[in-house]
Specification:
The protein is α/β, with parallel strands linked by helices. It is built from 18 helices and 18 strands. Helix 10 packs parallel to helix 12 and helix 11 packs antiparallel against helix 12. The longest helix is centred in the middle third of the chain and has 18 residues. The relative contact order is 0.20.
Amino acid sequence: MAQPAWQDPVPLPVDSAPVPEYGSGSLADLLPTLAAGQGVAGFTAAIPELTPADRNCVFLIDGLGWEQIKAHPDEAPFLHSLLPTSRGGTGRPITAGFPATTATSLASVGTGLPPGEHGLPGYSARNPETGELMNQLRWKPWTSPKVWQPYPTVFQLADAAGVRTAQVSAPAFEQTPLTKVALSGGSFLGRLTGEERMDIAAERLAMGDRSLVYTYYSEVDGKGHRFGVDSDAWRGQLMYVDGLARRLAEQLPPRSALYITADHGMIDIPFDEQSRIDFDEDWELRAGVALLGGEGRARHVYAVPGAENDVLTVWQEVLGEQFWVAGRDEAIAAGWFGPKVDERVRGRIGDVVAAAHDDVVITASVNEPHESVMVGMHGSMTPAEQLVPLLEVRS
């Protein structure tokens, strides 16, 4: 609630942010739990509600959060009917991780590690070695994938342990650096249509006594960004993906578990000056800032050397009632990026980190023209963005 005009604004306490359930109920805990149930050494069942299965399939729907499924029973009757099965039949969601964004979440899924360890802490982040802003979704400018994310994926470790592993996705993703660092291991099978992916995923699941198959669909997120989650275009995609999920569920071979999840949810942001704060037009927010990273609802702010405290003070004063605004050390200590942050990752995190509490974004109309005009946004720790399903079907 806004303070009366005669009172100074009171920033949101950093420790009031709802930190993801790292270690017990986040995306990073899913594959380690499944691998542990398949007897792969070195993994433990981090999500205790899940029951082991010999054959596991993960269907990740980009951008389809828990709250979006709950709100659309007519468009997604199959997915909605599975809500009580979520998280081992508790009817509860899991959390994406912070920031709730695709590059970070896919790395968390594939490596089984929180962002502070795998080192993809946002849509874009500063490379401490070069000082440049690196887009971790598009992998620009080029950076050695093995240096940026050195840990093996769960798929690689499971494959080495004799589990039949496969990823079924769009052919264009096969050679991307993000796929290499987050989802590699076993076979990659590129298929153009969603129906083909569901059919191939079911076939691959049946090919091993122990199998781990991942498949992915992106266009729910794409339509949400372009048109919003309150649009007919988005609802049409939701109806389509609901049919894909049913198609896959009906083909499960014996001794299988299908888990339907997402990398983040999404909210629509109004097009007005109160809801969209343009960093490129705001001299106060720009003062002392060398680079602006992250995305509209989860910003990494990199200060000019020596200006770190001043930038933090200004951002807290200007935005602190609408965003959780923390210094790097505060955000790390609060566990935003997980219980541990590797030394190589610290400098990728902003000197200031700003996570949206209200329905508001920090755009950058000059430097981020495409992102700034998106309708649907995500990244922060609010329920609409952070909570994702873990729906389950067993054969």
